[in-house]
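Exercise 3.2. Students should predict the tertiary structure of the chain below and write it as structure tokens, then compare their answer with the key that follows.

Predict this chain's 3D structure.
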Amino acid sequence: MKGLMMDRPLLTTEILKHAVRNYRHTEIITRTVEGPIHRYTFSDSEKRIKKLANALVKMGVKPGMRVGVIGWNTYRQFELYYAIGGIGAVCHTINPRLGPENALYVINHAEDDILFFDTTFTTLVAQLAPNLNTVKTFFALTDKHHAPDFDAPLLTYEELIAPESDHFVWPEFDENTAVALCYTSGTTGLPKGVLYSHRALVLQTLATSSASILSYREGDVILPVVPMFHVNAWNMPYSCPMIGCSLVFPGPGLDGESLSELFETEKVTHALGVPTVWLGLLQYLEKTGKSLPHLKSVLVGGSALSEALIRGFEKHDVEMIQGWGMTEMSPVGTINALSQESKKLPDKERYALQLKQGRALPFVDMRIVGDDGAVLPNDGETTGNLQVRGFWIIANYYKADKETVTEDGWFDTGDVAAIDEDGYMQITDRSKDVIKSGGEWISSIDIENAALLHPGVAQAGVIGVYHPKWQERPLLVVAKKEGQNPSAEDISAFVNERLAKIAWPDAVEFVDEIPLGATGKILKTRLREMFKGYELPV
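Answer key:
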């Protein structure tokens, strides 16, 4: 027997409608690429989004067509999210940090018909343009007064939407229709396309908007440092309108000084981004003596949260919250929002809990399995290959020629993890990064986090290198803080005090900076190239 409920499609435009009905005066603030601060309301944004939708339809954009965007977090890209998806087309956000070769690959692989780009990326787009197979039209995300020089015919975004009507009736279609396309960072081969449906993003929005997940509420001011070209800025362009939070878009200004200024002038209460951004901000605050009087919490993802970051921001009364997910998970899978009781734990116990990736969102199932495929116990100690399934988790890669999920319907994340009896998941390493020493597994993350507690360490990365007896042993690679000059012996002694003996690094080497990938993660492949053939002291 079926229920007698209306069958209405879950579409992202319903989020926009909700925001305009209930929070029409809530602001979206942008530090623009051109320089000045731009601010308007959800109600204002809807009018421009409808003008853009009219323009796209008039241009001949059909349902299913891919529209590429290379841009910073700004109000214009926010408008593109809703207008492109709202007419049934696919918003393909392109990560400019992929580099020209991979950027060219993903645009051609997606078969984008139109390409919008911020003027910052004019040189990149000009370099790509002669080799783009399907792009017919280019738009600069600016007005005619700031239009860049460009060899191919070029229009500007403001000229595109200016003559259009701000009245548009959003079409209804199947909720499983594709709405957005994002490619993985390509650190282990060519980037792979993940094609999101309206249904998946709306369901994730409902889950992330839950009070028990992020605790954001109407009146909060959210600044997503995580870019909109990387898995939808962790869903914030959808979650904030759903909740009624103001959005502050930082544009290209992601350095410590620029962020600090926005936090203060816009009274930002919550922010989101990768650890490297927050390390930079923390160093700026330490150097200048500035504070964060309005900021309450920071959601950290992309790489593991370190105890050093937790301690550093606690001095400013800011709570660091760890989350975990993947491009293939739309992206949020877990959040580690500590309960009021957990916050009262002694520091050592609380830090240990905060360093876990957290508990699964509603409708996300997690399990760990052995190399033989056997499901392992959730006892907090047993580690295995982490697999997930759920409403917003990938079933297959875009244009893939082989199955992505297991025979019984789970996606293998490539992470090695443990899950405890209370549902807290902790990643111990990526399966390709875990160090296998004499039959034992060593977590590179644990060593990195211990090193980051040292006052002279700015960045740390750990890789396994060949050892004639133990097969692999850890090499700790460190970038020093400005003005600090710790020795390798000093760092080794410091780290060893905090680790089991088997995890003591066999050597410490220094570099000017740790190589980072397109999404801010430590590029272990590059580290391995840098130290190829490295011989440990025996």
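Discussion points: The chain is about 30% helix and 25% strand. The mean pLDDT is 94.
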